[in-house]
Amino acid sequence: MEVVNTIGRRKTAVARIYLSEGNGNITINKREFKQYFPTTTLQYIVTQPLNLAEAVEKYDIKVNLDGGGIKGQAEALRLAITRALMKIDPELRTELKAAGFVTRDPREVERKKPGRPKARKRFQFSKR
Predict the structure, then answer these.
(1) How confident is the model at residue 1 (pLDDT cuts 50, 70, 90)?
(2) Residue 51: CATH number of its domain
(3) Do residues 17 and 24 make contact, with C-beta atoms less than 8 angstroms apart?
């Protein structure tokens, strides 16, 4: 099997992954997976598609993560892993879609508007 590479995005986080056959090693920015995501919640988010496909110790994943916060990076990585698994086995799509891993979360930060302190907040109104 050759290397499958995909991209996952969430907010401003971008995850580029290279998935190949192996024994379940996940390397993120040249660091160990559990060292990069220390909390069990984030580790769970990342491994959700692998657990669903029963492929936790089947593939080695090398990840380049950039931008965003730690939660956005975890969700971007989940989407990238989902897309890679679908490339390998298109029949997994129905299971992954039912679990909600296939859809890219489109929510982004709204830009700040001129004459306002934030995107929607306004300065205090004074009648006189």
Answers:
(1) low
(2) 3.30.230.10
(3) no
